[in-house]
Amino acid sequence: MDDEQGGEAAGSDDLTDDWAAAMTEEESSSDDDGMDDWAAAMAEQDETDSADLTEDDIQTAPLDYLEDESPDFDSDNPNLEVIMDIPVTISMEVGSTEIAIRNLLQLNQGSVIELDRLAGEPLDVKVNGTLIAHGEVVMVNEKFGIRLTDVVSPSERIKRLR
Length: 162
Prior knowledge:
The chain has 3 helices and 4 strands; from the N terminus they run H-E-H-E-E-E-H. The protein has helices spanning 2-50, 101-105, 154-161; strands spanning 90-93, 123-127, 130-140, 143-151. Strand 2 and strand 3 (130-140) form a beta hairpin. The longest helix is centred in the first third of the chain and has 49 residues, at 2-50.
C-alpha cells in the first residue's frame, strides 16, 4: 500500500511539474507575441505619421454656394399679421413693495401690506409683464374693469414687447 501511495505522490509531483512548465512556456511565448504585435503597430504608426502629405493626396469636394432666399425684412414696418392671434396675459398692478421673508412668513388673514402707491393713483396696465398703459378701476356688470387714462404709443409698445 505504501508503494501505491508513494507512486501516486511521485506521479502527482510529475504532473504538477509538467503543468508548471507548460504554463511558464505559454506565458513567455504569449508575452513575446504581444510585444511583437505592439512593436509592429507602433512602427506602422510612425511610418504613417512621418509620411508628408502633398496636394495630390488631398481631395476636395465641390460645394454649391448658398444664396440668401429669405424675403426682405423691413424692421421699421414689420409684418405683425402673423402674431395678431397669439394670446397674451394682461394684468393691472395696484402697487408693489419689498418685505423681508421673515415678515412675509408672519402674514395671516387680516394683515395689511402698505404699497408704494397713493389711493386714487392710476394703476399700471401690463401685458406679459411689460407696462403699456395706466388706468383707473371701474365697475362693469358687477365686475372690475379698467378705464385707460394714458396709453403707450403702438410703436413704443412693440419695442417694449420685443
